[in-house]
Amino acid sequence: MSNKIKLMLADDHAVVRSGLRMLLDAQPDMEIVGEAETGMEAITKTKELRPDVVLMDVEMPGMNGIEATEKIKESVPETAVLALTMYEDDQYFFEMLKAGASGYVPKRAAPDELVNAIRTVSKGEVFLYPTLAARLVNDYLNRDETTSAEDEEEDLTPREKEVLIQIAEGLTNPEIAEVLTISVKTVDRHRENIMRKLNLHSRVDLVKYAIRKGLIDLED
Prior knowledge:
Largest sheet: 6 strands, parallel
Structural class: alpha/beta
Order of helices and strands: EHEHEHEHEHEHHHHHH
Shape: globular
Strand content: 5-15%
Oligomer: single chain
Distance between the termini: 39 Å
Number of helices: 11
Radius of gyration: 18 Å
CATH topology of the largest domain: Rossmann fold
CATH architecture of the largest domain: 3-Layer(aba) Sandwich
């Protein structure tokens, strides 16, 4: 049984898919199990092939990548979607995150950044390209609305706050366990408690919350 990260490429440009295939076939821990030229084809093949990660172009003929991502996350929630696109404007960025994408990488990114992004989202983590992460910060800093989480932060124990910060910094559960010298099972329990107390539902939500509350420093 292969432990490689199973990938599917969804892009309507054959040249782009060919370039990605050359890059990713060279990675010892990755294998491409399928390709799609349209959003609808991406949905169908994801259901059939169950890849770990779909590299999703945002703009494709017929159904775009945003709609395709929504459908994929509804039908195959365990598959991570990584947006790989030439579009870097706020509209596409936020729409893809809302649709359930685990990351957003511009096509101008360096090859090693893309490879790192794939490995990150395959583990259930979130990858945000630095310039786009800054937009996420600004979006939240400029909001006037308050959330129930603001009032509930004080319900977190000191240890839960420590775990929250480590999650927001991008550490995996085993890494958090090592840093805090606790078991992975304990990290899982803290994470569940944090989600419940703050009424948050994903790692992206936790990152946004930590940024807004000033719990992590993006300059690091």
